[in-house]
Every structure is written in structure tokens, then in C-alpha cells.
Amino acid sequence: MRFPDHHVPRWIILLIDTFLVMLALFTAYMLRFEFTIPPVEVGPLLFAFPIYMMVRITSFLIAETYASVVRYSGTEDSIRVLKAIVGGSILMGLLNPLKFYFWDSAYFLPFTIVIIDAVLASVFMILFRLGAKMLYLEMRNPRSAKSAVVIYGAGESGVITKRTIDRDAASGYQVIAFFDDDLRKSGKRLEGAPILHTSSLDAYLSKQAVSQLIVSIQQSDPEKRRAVINTAVNHQVNVLNVPPVNNWINGELSVKQLKSVKIEDLLGRPPIVLADSHVGEQLRGQVVLITGAAGSIGSGLMQLVARHEPLLLIAFDQAESPLFELEIALRIAHPKLRLEIVIGDVRQKERLRKLFATFKPAVVYHAAAYKHVPLMELNPTEAVLTNVLGTKHLVDLSIESHVKTFVLISTDKAVNPTSVMGSSKRVAEIYAQASNSETGTHFITTRFGNVLGSNGSVIPLFRKQIEDGGPLTITHPDVVRFFMTIPEACQLVLEAGAMGEGGEIFVFDMGQSVRIADLADKMIRLSGLEPGKDIEIKYTGLRPGEKLFEELLASAENTMPTHHPRILRAKVRANDLIEVQKEIDELVAIFQLQDNEALIKKLKRIVPEYISNNSEFSKFDV
């Protein structure tokens, strides 16, 4: 059964309010005279009644108590009712001395009646509105048909969340409990729902049929938040997140703004956040060049650098459409930013030379690279041409143009590489480091683990596979990876550029590596599905060049602390620039021959620790 969607005419609301105040006046007399009205009071009441009704109706018309949609009544409507009743009662109270002293020495209405009537009229009218609202909500969305919801966070945000849900008849949610970390709140009730301690969540979900858990804590401890989400996921409870207050629409929360939690919330460690004051000092008023600007890391860097008011920000990439979209986003977010969009390839030295000569960048962030391991196993000469020669072009031109800081974005796959991609990035690292001692330019390297949500990464792949109904494909049940978010990766790049003195490799202390099979399991559960039942997980075997686990530091390297406890500095063996240049020239020359065997053998001479894994190139291992 559905409650009618059309509004009740205003005159009917006014008529009901009129009946309610009549009932209030009669009830006030009954209470005042203990349910027996003396005959002597009947005459004055009949005289006062028409004036009473005229005052009440006039106050309703002035306050427009009838104008609101009753089924959506709220606090403002109750206040409007109170103003109308109190105003009318004050006027009737003033009529008493006027009638007593200037008419017939009798009161218009006894003061006790005026007071009791005001209270009863207010209560009757407000209860009518609340009752109509509750009836509408129940008819529109019966309590028995609603999904049970619990809220993590019994603070102000939690209260607003419950009120938002209660107000939205179409949400289909019913809040049955709050959970909070504060023991002092346990055992109390909030908005009619009990407050329980977070430690009891696991037992509660085991007994109660809960469909959703809403995280509604604006400033939450990451570890506690993660534990709560994991508990919900383990009980097949879908988890939603309340966005930050500054993202609420016009300062008000909407049920539509409740979003599924991100897999980043289950990284296994607190997010890494860096202060960027000294980054701003380095970038403000400078010409900054970012290669690979349209990629996941590159576009993240563009957004961060734009905040630091560079003199000019140059986006360099060969991807036309993503560059176009990036330009639109930047010009909207930073209308005063001087922005130059340059389409080109890092393998084209003359194109780069023209760029450096025209704009004279002071800071270069080099993010352009081929990064997909299996594809580069199939196309090793292309990997060398982009990752090695492209980096060499940029390093050489940075020296010629007296660039102050050059930051190379590398990968954990360059550590003890087992793939063409990893070894090509290691050669790029070697050349940048060897060039550092010969020039005033500071050449700095940053190494990432896998970046959550980046183009081609496992997270978007899993999301697409879940949307398609599965299966989720994993190469091996024991594959583990280090993960970081795009903001973390971009912060590391900027921080490294600001703190580096040249020749260093900076890495994050990224905590424990994550088992990909566990990641897939959690993503399925976060989608409200059950692994093995709703979505299958399928193991396909290691791909060419792929490792079971990856490292951020090679065995021959060691680390030193920096100003931040989560950033480490790796010290690596020194390389002779002349020798490195010779080796790279010979490596790049092999491109013309398109001889994969010769190319791989040369790579393995430059990077002795490169040992192919699950690859046809294993036969060339020394």
C-alpha cells in the first residue's frame, strides 16, 4: 500500500488545527474544573469562544502554520506552531485586564485556562504533525521492509546521519544501534537507538541481521576504523562512509552522499601524510615540468604542484585525450594557474630540447614510462627506448639547461629485477645517479610500491571484474605486494625533490606487504558479495617477469633515516658516468637491430642482479 503522493490541501490543515485548538480549550476547562464545568462558567465561555477562535485562526494565518507539507514536518514547523499559539495566548491574556477594568469586572478567560490551553494546543498541533509524518513514512516504507543499519560513531556526525536516514523515506534504512569507542557512552540511548561499545560489534553482528554499517566519525583513529570495517566485511555487512563535513551539500548531509568505503581504508597501515611547507618554498615562483603528466601519478603531481603557486606548470605527455581532460580539470580548480600543455614523446630529443630552451624549467618530475611487466616482456626494445633512452634525454637536457632538481619516479620492480620493465627502470636509476656527481643538478630517485587506483593497477581491474560478475583473476595465491595511494606517491615525489641533495633513492616505510588474494577477498566483501559464492576467484599462473614478492631495497643496499620516520634513504653502489654512458649507448643501438636476445644480454650485463623469472629470457641468465 502506498501513501498518496499529492499534498493535502491547506484549508484541510487549517480546519484540523482549528478543531485541535477547540479540543484544547475544552480539555483545559475540564482539567481546570476537575471534569465538571460549573454552570457559572458556561456563559463567559460562550461569550469568549468566538473571540478565542478568531484570535487563534488569525494567528494561524499570520504564522502560516497550514502552509508546510505535514508529512515532511520538522523543527521549523514546530517552532512556527509554538509562535502562533504563544502569540495568540499572550493576546488573550492581555484581554483579561481590559475586560475586567473597562467592561464588566470579569476576566475574558481565567489565566489558568489560558496557560493550560496554550500548552495543550501546542502539544496537540505538534503531535498531529509528527503523527502524520510517521504514518506517511511507515506507509511509504514499512518498518518491516527496511534494512537494519548500525552506525559507527555516536557523536554529532552519527546523530546527523541517523536524522538524515530517518528523514529520507526512500532510503530503506532503519538505524537499530550505534557503536562507539567511548566507554562512557555505552548503555545509553541516542535518538532512540542503543549505544554499544565497539568491542561488542563482532558478537552483535553474529546475532543480528544487519545489512549496512555506516562509518560516521569525522576524525577517527585509522587502526580502529580499519578493525571496524574488517569486522563488518567478515560478517558480509556492507560498509558505507559519511563524507567529510566540507563535502556536504550546502552544509547538509544526504543519504545519496553515503559511499562505499574505499579499499585504501584496508591497507593495513595508517595513511602516510607529510607536511609540505618546504615543498612550497621549493616550487613557489618556479617553472615546473612534469613528464607523463596525464598518467595516474603525473596528474596527481600536477594537482599538488598547482597548489604551490608555480610561475609556470608544464604538462608533457603523448596521450592527447587524457591531457585535454587534465587541462580542463586544472583550469577549473586553479583558474589563476599559468599552465602549458605540451604533447610529445620523451624519446624525441629535439622535441624535448625545444621545450627546455623555450620554458627553462627549474624543477623536473619524470613520471613518463612504460610500466606493465607482461607487455614489456613482449616488447623489450620499446621498454628500453622509453624507460632508458627517454630518461637519458631528460637527464642530459636537464644538465644542459641547469635544472635545479630532477626527480626520477622509479619502482620497486627495479630492485633485484626479474623483468625487462624492472631492469630498464634500474638502468634509468643508474644513469640519473651517475650524472648527479658531474653537475649542479640534483638527481633524486623515488621508488614506489604498487599504487592503488592507478591506471592498469589491480584495484580498477578487480572492480571491473566484480561489476561483470567475476571471476577475479589472480596470478598466484601467494603473490604479495606493497601498496600506497596516489596521494602518498605524489607526496613522496614532492618531498624527495625538496629534501634531496642529489644521488639518493627515497622509499616509504610502507609497513607489511599485502597478499593479493586477501585484497580480492576484501574487495568482493566490500561490494556486499561473498567470495566463492557470488564471485569466483580464479588463479591463472604467474605472468612472464612477475615476482611472487617485491622488494623496495636490494640486498646490497642499506638505508639511512631522514627527517621523517616513514621515509628511508637508500645508499647504492656508485657507477662511473663514462662507463654507464657507453653501456647505455650500446643498449639503445640494439633497438635498430630489433634483436631481443642481444638486448636482454646487454641489460643483464648492465644490471647483474637482473635474473628473469617465468620468462623466455631466463635462458640468457648469467
Structure description:
This protein has three domains: 10-140, no CATH class; 143-261, NAD(P)-binding Rossmann-like Domain (Rossmann fold, 3-Layer(aba) Sandwich); 282-616, 3-Layer(aba) Sandwich (Rossmann fold), CATH 3.40.50. Helix 3 runs antiparallel to helix 4. The longest helix is centred in the first third of the chain and has 30 residues, at 75-104. It is an alpha/beta fold and 622 residues long. 47% of the residues lie in helices and 15% in strands. The N and C termini lie far apart (78 Å). The radius of gyration is 35 Å and the shape is elongated.
* Count of beta strands: 22
**End-to-end distance, in Å?**
78 Å
Q: For the record, what CATH class of the largest domain applies? A: Alpha Beta
* Total number of domains: 3
Secondary-structure content class: alpha/beta
Approximately how much helix is present in the residues? 40-55%
Estimate the strand proportion. Answer: 15-25%
**Stretches with pLDDT under 50, minimum 5 residues:** 1-5
Mean model confidence by pLDDT: 84
Shape-level CATH architecture of the largest domain: 3-Layer(aba) Sandwich
Q: Widest sheet: strand order?
A: 10-9-8-11-12-13-18-22-21
The oligomeric status of these chains comes to single chain
**Alpha carbon gyration radius:** 35 Å
Full CATH superfamily name of the largest domain = NAD(P)-binding Rossmann-like Domain
Main sheet overview: 9 strands, mixed
